[in-house]
Amino acid sequence: MSDEERTRLDIGAAFDRYGPMVYRRCLQLLRDEEKARDAMQEVFVRLLSHQDRLSGRYPSSLLFRIATNVCLNLLRAQKIRAEESGEEALAAIAAADDSEKKTVLGDLLDRLFRREKASTREIAVMLYVDGMTLAEAARETGLSVSGVRKRIREFQARVLVQGRMSP
Q1: Nearest to 148 by CA among 157, 139, 138, 156
Q2: What topology does CATH give the domain 1-94?
Q3: What is the mean pLDDT of residues 71-80?
Q4: Which residue has the higher pLDDT, 75 or 1?
């Protein structure tokens, strides 16, 4: 990247302008206001610690992607801790109401993505949760549209095979 292509990213201005967008993204994925605020702060900490390597040309896309990755990592770590301590069962019992379907679906999705690359999960969230098009997901991930399409097709094929193998 040449010097004229590289635009220094003003972290303070990015926080003021894109902070609400990052918070909404984190809240959408984490479904907890406090965790979303913490995740939003983590996004800007990462931005600050890597600002010398980042371009300020497309800050909203960059921040959206960082927020998605931070939240997915938090969810993955939370899932691992819950499995190790048995908290997941207690949380499911405590939250057993209209969100029971979401819990069951969340568990199913966690099982489906357990052996997948983190980027495959990220693409699936973009396509199926955020409602992005293949082109939008490709732009966010840095893959081609055909690469995103291939990744999702392969994932769907593995899911079908897993479904046939289940009793």
Answers
A1: 138
A2: Rna Polymerase Sigma Factor; Chain: A (1.10.1740)
A3: 82
A4: 75
